[in-house]
Design goal:
The complex is a heterodimer of chains A (725) and B (623). Chain A is of the alpha+beta class and 725 residues long. Chain A folds into three domains: 282 residues, Methylamine Dehydrogenase, Chain H, CATH 2.130.10; 133 residues, Immunoglobulins (Immunoglobulin-like), CATH 2.60.40; 238 residues, no CATH class. In chain A, strand 14 and strand 15 form a beta hairpin. In chain A, helix 17 runs antiparallel to helix 18. The two termini of chain A are 61 Å apart. Among the domains of chain B are: 184 residues, no CATH class; 137 residues, Serine Threonine Protein Phosphatase 5, Tetratricopeptide repeat (Alpha Horseshoe). In chain B, helix 6 runs parallel beside helix 10, helix 10 packs antiparallel against helix 11 and helix 25 packs antiparallel against helix 26. In chain B, strands 1-2 form a two-stranded parallel sheet. Chain B starts with 10 loop residues before the first helix and ends with a helix. The chains are: A alpha+beta (725), B mainly alpha (623). The interface between A and B is large, with 44 and 47 residues. Chain B: This is FA complementation group G. Chain B: One of its GO terms (cellular component) is Fanconi anaemia nuclear complex.
Chain lengths: 725, 623
């Protein structure tokens, strides 16, 4: 890809754009490089005139760089012709010389028809300055020498060489030399190139090389001369104006320092016989020296502080990197159990009642068991987003982010934060909680330094910790377990009247909006659990896993009775800290004593969880039947049933992962009526597809009908589960 | 109870609405197109394209249903037009292919081949006489546009039949009728970004033009001509009709019927004056016919049209989507339509005037040309074909000035050339034997051709010598001629395998090489010096120079005649007569146009009356 930019050539009289040229910069690398340092590196332009023109028709050319002096030079005709061609010389066209950030020195004759930008030379480092110098001798007007200076200190002199041997004509000589860089800015007068490195201002005598020695020797001489610039002891100059020369021979430079000081620098009279270095000394007063010492001290102390802070930053950064590697390694190994992650989060849900409103709080605990300190700059970010969302939210899944800054978390310490997860009745579970640790570079570098890094967009490193899921089982509010212990059948009576009314109103609203029940029943059918879903798990499996789990607690009981098995299943489901989330409400910690649990969901619906043992299998093969535990979820709210079903399945899934592997007999599997189940499923699939297409065009069928059909499919699916072995 | 709480539009209606919104937005933009810059409208176009594409993806998400074909085809059409307008042909073709495959599915067939022509034929066959037919024809229309824009004229020829039928069926407005009947409500009609009828018309004439240009470049002029004749009566923008006339003219010119070609070019210009290429081609025909006056006239006109401000804008620019320029991209056409720049035309004009006796006019043009170089406000852009080097232009202008009896001005111009080049001239130059002029030249480090530079300087001295001759300042003339000769002696010639030597007369010199120019210069300068010596009665020197001149350049008329004259004066009358006789035999072929004008023999110097010379020979009587 090539990058184009268009410097505009404006005419001084009318200030209108005359024409524009495109300068292709070939490599993308240059482009990037240029973008990064846009503040400093810009193309440098000067306009060069043929020496013979009496008055320049162009009085100014606009430059892309405001800081560089707008200048033009009258070049010695021979050099002009040699460099830019005789056609250009013939019509005395002004030539734009352009130093590009990639080091190329290009020229463009302004008036020549069909002229294109051509490369004169390549400096191989960003060009910071182009100028022309008379280099003593000859007439006052015509510059004899073009000077270009690169950022890293390469100086290019272009002047006419004396004709070589064998009748060769004179040709333009390109002499390159190096001075200690970096060069910030420069200017030339009749004999000297002045340039600033930021810490010093130096003068370079250009006339030395052209002292009449011919050919190659001349080049060597010049580069030798270039290596010994003279220091003028002025620091922090970032811009220089064209020097003026007084009749007495004093040279005055105007320089702008990095602090914004405008300095007039008067240079001593150059004398040919005297050594340059001796001259400034003679004029140095004690005050100058003192101020120089002051400058140096100031610079040194600034450097010291910066080194100190850099060291600190490095140490900090080391910690950050250690932690990053630790976390990255643990995320890469997926099988790494949560409990073994060195830095992890776990959480607890808790219902609380405030101002007559129930709300669910989540308490997150960040546990640092790594050997590293989590220092300033780290933030714990917790993002909660519901898996599904409410239709009122406009179909956009909304996530809530919380971030907690903390100062220092030493190894072994924990940080507990608590955040509101949901108010009663407005959140859709399950909610996924993503915990991550964020480190902001801003805390290391400070705002403005970060801003100058264009590559570092956000300035943050985000490392995921672990993901927690809060599902329906976590947010159930189990009705006082003592009550259920006493009398499970009288459970409906325990619902307060207010609850009943509320439930009635809610279910009525749902029903009216066409999303409620399938049309059966009415207000009278309210307390009937109309929706149900069940999950069947083979009791053998449960026995294995649950016993395995509880064996350390109760080693005496080798085999759980079926009844006990049901209870312990429910108990496990409601209490286990699955995936790091725990239910916080069961403070009394009384074990369930009946396989029926009544509870209240987050939106106030009552739900009933039942576990009972069933035998599955065809009647004819009674002995082949398997005993299984059926967990049935019943509620008047579809949402509750769906959510709980999902949660229960999720639990069973973890149970399965924990179960020891064991081959299931094929016969058993066959006996489960797989074929029937499959046919049923296919039938349902067809039904779904049909209704989806008609739904897409909304023709003919009412929404209500459609919803109804979907609902029936759903219920069908939930009511006849396959047995989980 | 059964009332819907949320009144939702069906998806179909939503999609139609979305499509129509996009189209209306585009049309608004197009209406106010003048106020927007080119960049802005490009961005807008890009945005529209991506929106159409997104919409299409949604629509194609459902299985193909016959009811929604029209909507789908409309969106495909819109998206493809946008893609084609941005020259994104592969994307457009992909969309078309998907759409046709879906059409096939609707018709109950399953796509088999992936090859576009086979696919198209299958589709066209399977939807024949069904409701889908018109929809598919619209897609074919776009395929046509893509083929045309990517110069796949073979494909278009292959589908010639189908495309012709397409042109015939479309005018009935089947599309709109059917749709309004089917739906009854204007709400449901999906709009199109470009009227298909207009698209087909545009495609038809552009195809004819592209085919014409292609056939013409292949040399099948008569075939091309018949197609173009038909195309010229089609309804189309004026400039396109002008192009058909122009191409017919080019065909006729190829069939060597210049007069008829001129007629066609005139018609093209009458249809649309922006068809400048017709003017240019007419000029070339006049040149071919040798009708110099008409050629100069045509150049005049061409120059003044190129100087008009509108000339810089391309004639095919169009604010609408799918401009003709995006459809006419073939190389052969653009080479036919190209016209040289104003400066190049001006140079041609000036040179013609000077060569054909309209010297004062030519001088004016040359001065205009030079002024243009010195002015500050001309556009800097690449010239095709490139102008000759400025130095040569200066020398030509100088020659013209001398012809127009303005030796002082000529001297000034030559001075400029000399002062520019003099310092750069080498002390000695070795010219290698080269096969052709265009082969590798001796290019020095700074990119200048040193031999050419030396020859230019020599020519400038020669011209100055001519000027002095014109002013009858013989001494000065001798000085200038001598400078020229001295300069030319610096050139050594190196044959392969030999040592460098000063070129001698017995070498075979090819036309157009540096060596020929060198020899010609040498001959002319020696002749000039010889003639000057004759005027100052230095007959010995004169004879030596004139004879050397004839060695370097045997066809030099002046040298031949004056050599005879000198011999006559020296009393060697027989030899003189022989010289004269010999000179008269080659005088006819001496005016070579292949050489630059400044290398031709001056007409302004002292001349010898040939009738008088013949008289003398007669007086001499037979031996």
């Amino acid at each position: 890809m090539s990058l184009y930019k268009t410097p505009k050539q404006t005419q001084s009289s009318s200030y209108e754009m005359l024409s524009s040229f495109t300068l292709p910069l070939v490599s993308a690398f240059v482009h990037e490089d240029e973008l990064k340092t846009r503040m400093r590196r810009r193309p440098v332009l000067i306009c060069v005139f043929h020496g013979q023109t009496a008055s320049p028709p162009f009085s100014s050319t606009s430059s892309a760089e405001a800081a560089s002096p707008v200048s033009h030079f009258h070049l010695k005709p021979v050099l002009f012709k040699r460099l830019f061609g005789i056609d250009t010389a013939l019509i005395k066209s002004p030539v734009i010389l352009c130093g590009l950030p990639d080091g190329r020195l290009c020229f463009l004759p302004l008036r020549l028809p069909g002229s294109r930008l051509r490369v004169l030379h390549s400096l191989e480092q960003p060009v910071v300055f182009i100028g022309a110098s008379v280099v003593m001798k000859t007439g006052p007007e015509h510059a004899q020498c073009l000077v270009a200076v690169g950022e890293l200190g390469r100086v290019l002199l272009i002047k006419m060489d004396k004709g070589g041997s064998e009748g060769e004509c004179s040709r333009a000589g390109f002499t390159e030399g190096c001075v200690p860089g970096p060069v910030v800015c420069g200017c030339v007068d009749k004999r000297h190139l002045y340039y600033s490195t930021g810490s010093d201002l130096l003068a370079l005598d250009l006339s030395k090389g052209s002292s009449g020695i011919e050919g190659q020797e001349c080049g060597e001489e010049t580069s030798a001369a270039l290596q010994s610039p003279t220091s003028l002891n002025v620091c922090r100059v970032i811009s220089l104006a064209q020097p003026t020369c007084s009749p007495a021979g004093e040279v005055q430079l105007l320089g702008l320092s990095i602090r914004g000081q405008l300095q007039r620098i008067t240079l001593p009279v150059w004398r040919k016989d005297a050594r340059m270095s001796k001259l400034p000394q003679g004029r140095c007063s004690a005050r100058d020296l003192l101020s120089a010492i002051g400058d140096v001290y100031e610079r040194a102390s600034v450097l010291k502080t910066s080194i100190k802070s850099k060291n600190q930053t490095l140490r900090h950064l080391n910690q950050v990197l250690n932690i990053s590697f630790l976390l990255l390694a643990s995320t890469r190994e997926e099988h790494f159990p949560i409990q073994e992650k060195p830095i992890r989060c776990h959480a607890m849900t808790k219902w609380s009642r405030l101002l007559q409103k129930d709300s669910l709080n989540l308490t997150c605990v960040l546990d640092n068991s790594s050997p590293y300190v989590l220092e300033r700059g780290w933030t714990l970010t917790i993002a909660a987003f519901p898996l599904s969302c409410s239709p009122s939210a406009g179909g956009e899944s909304s996530s809530t982010n919380f971030s907690f800054q903390f100062c220092n978390l030493h190894p072994g310490e924990t940080l507990e934060v608590s955040l509101p997860l949901a108010a009663a009745g407005d959140t859709y579970f399950p909610v996924t909680i993503n915990c991550s640790l964020t480190f902001s570079v801003t805390s290391l570098l400070g705002e403005e330094e970060v801003a100058s890094f264009t590559g570092l967009q956000s300035g943050c490193i985000s490392l995921p910790l672990n993901t927690l899921t809060v599902d329906w089982l976590h947010v159930l509010q189990v009705k006082s377990s003592t009550a259920s212990h006493k009398n499970t059948t009288s459970q409906p009576n325990n619902i307060t009247t207010a609850d009943t009314i509320q439930a009635f109103v809610r279910s009525h609203r749902i029903w009216c909006s066409g999303r409620g029940d399938g049309g059966g029943g009415g207000a009278s059918a309210l307390k009937q659990e109309q929706y149900s879903a069940c999950v069947r798990v083979s009791s053998e499996l449960l026995r294995d896993t649950l016993v395995l789990k509880s064996s350390d607690l109760d080693p005496q009981e080798p085999m759980l009775a079926p009844h006990n098995l049901c209870i312990s299943l429910l108990d496990w489901m409601l209490s286990d800290s699955l995936g790091g989330v725990k239910m916080g409400h069961r403070g009394d910690e009384i074990a369930l004593s009946s396989p029926v649990v009544h509870a209240q969901g987050p939106n106030g619906d009552t739900v009933k969880l039942t576990a009972k043992e069933v035998n599955i299998g065809e009647e004819s093969m009674a002995k082949e039947s398997l005993s299984a535990i059926e967990v049935r979820v019943e509620s008047s709210s579809v949402a509750a049933v769906c959510g709980l079903h999902h949660a229960v399945l999720h639990r069973v899934q973890t149970l399965l992962q924990r179960a020891p592997k064991r081959p299931a007999s094929t016969k058993t599997v066959q006996s489960l009526g797989l074929r029937q189940a499959l046919q049923r499923a296919e039938c349902l699939l067809q039904q779904i597809q049909q209704s989806r297409i008609s739904a897409a065009f909304g023709v003919g069928e009412s929404t209500r009908q459609m919803t109804h059909s979907f609902l029936s499919v759903y219920r069908e699916l939930r009511e006849n589960p396959l047995l989980i072995i | 109870m059964s009332n819907k709480i949320y009144h939702t539009l069906s998806l179909f209606d939503k999609w139609v609405q979305e499509n129509n919104n996009l189209v209306n937005k585009w049309k608004q933009q197009e209406g106010g197109g003048d106020t927007l810059s080119r960049d802005q409208s490009q961005t807008h176009l890009k945005w529209c394209t991506s929106e159409f594409e997104t919409l299409l993806r949604k629509i194609q998400g459902v299985p193909p249903l016959a009811d929604h074909t029209q909507l789908e085809v409309s969106v495909v059409y819109n998206a493809c037009v946008c893609f084609t307008a941005q020259s994104q042909f592969t994307e457009a073709e992909l969309l078309l292919k998907q759409a046709t495959e879906r059409a096939l599915q609707m018709a109950g067939n399953f796509p088999v081949a992936s090859d576009p022509p086979v696919l198209w034929r299958t589709v066209l066959k399977s939807v024949e006489n069904t409701a889908l037919n018109s929809c598919v024809l619209y897609l074919l229309c776009l395929q046509w546009a893509i083929w045309l824009a990517t110069c796949q004229l073979k494909m278009i020829e292959e589908f010639q039949e189908e495309l012709t039928s397409l042109v015939e069926t479309l005018p009935d407005g089947v599309w709109d009728d059917r749709r309004s009947k089917a739906r009854g409500k204007s709400f449901d009609i999906s709009l199109l970004v470009m009227e298909p009828r207009r698209l087909v018309e545009l495609l038809q004439i552009c195809t004819s033009i592209a085919q014409g240009a292609e056939r013409l470049s292949e040399g099948h002029s008569s075939e091309a001509l018949s197609g173009l004749q038909i195309a010229s009566s089609l309804p189309a923008p004026r400039i396109l009709v002008a192009y058909t006339h122009f191409l017919s003219g080019s065909c006729l010119a190829h069939m060597s019927r210049p007069q008829m070609a001129l007629q066609c070019y005139r018609k093209a210009l009458e249809t649309d004056f922006r068809c400048v290429c017709a003017l240019y081609q007419s000029m070339l025909i006049y040149r071919q016919l040798g009708n110099t006056q008409a050629e100069i006239q045509a150049l005049h006109l061409l120059h003044s049209t190129r100087m008009l401000p509108s000339a810089t804008e391309p004639a095919l620019a169009c604010t609408h989507l799918l401009s003709p320029s995006s459809l006419l991209r073939s190389q052969s056409l653009s080479s036919l339509l190209s016209v040289p720049s104003a400066l190049s035309v001006l140079h041609n004009l000036a040179l013609k005037c000077v060569l054909h006796g309209r010297v004062s006019e030519g001088v004016e043009h040359y001065l205009d040309l030079l002024a243009a170089f010195h002015s500050e406000d001309h556009q800097v852009h690449a010239e095709v074909p490139p102008l000759p080097r400025l130095t040569e232009l200066y020398l030509e202008a100088g020659t013209a000035l001398l012809m127009a009896q303005r030796p002082a001005d000529c001297m000034a111009l030559c001075d400029e050339v000399i002062s520019t080049t003099l310092e750069l001239l080498p002390e000695k130059l070795i010219l290698e034997e080269l096969e052709q002029r265009n082969e590798i030249r001796d290019v020095s480090v700074e990119g200048e051709d040193r031999v050419a530079m030396l020859l230019w300087t020599g020519a400038a001295y020669l011209l100055q010598g001519h000027c002095q001759t014109h002013l009858k300042d013989w001494k000065q003339a001798v000085i200038h001629y001598t400078r020229c000769i001295n300069l030319l002696m610096k050139v050594w010639f190196k044959k392969r395998g030999f040592q460098p030597q000063i070129p001698s007369a017995d070498m075979i010199v090819k036309e157009g090489t540096y060596l020929s120019v060198l020899q010609k210069l040498k001959g002319l300068s020696l002749a000039g010096r010889g003639i000057s010596f004759t005027q100052t009665d230095q007959l010995k020197e004169a004879l030596r120079d004139l004879q050397l001149s004839l060695q370097a350049f045997p066809e030099c008329v002046g040298a031949g005649l004056w050599c005879g004259e000198v011999l006559w004066r020296l009393g060697r009358r027989r030899m003189a007569a022989a010289h004269w006789e010999k000179t008269w035999t080659f005088s006819a072929q001496s005016s070579l146009e292949s050489l630059p004008v400044y290398l031709q023999e001056p007409q302004s110097g002292p001349s010898l009356d040939s009738t008088e010379l013949r008289h003398r020979i007669q007086e001499l009587g037979p031996i």
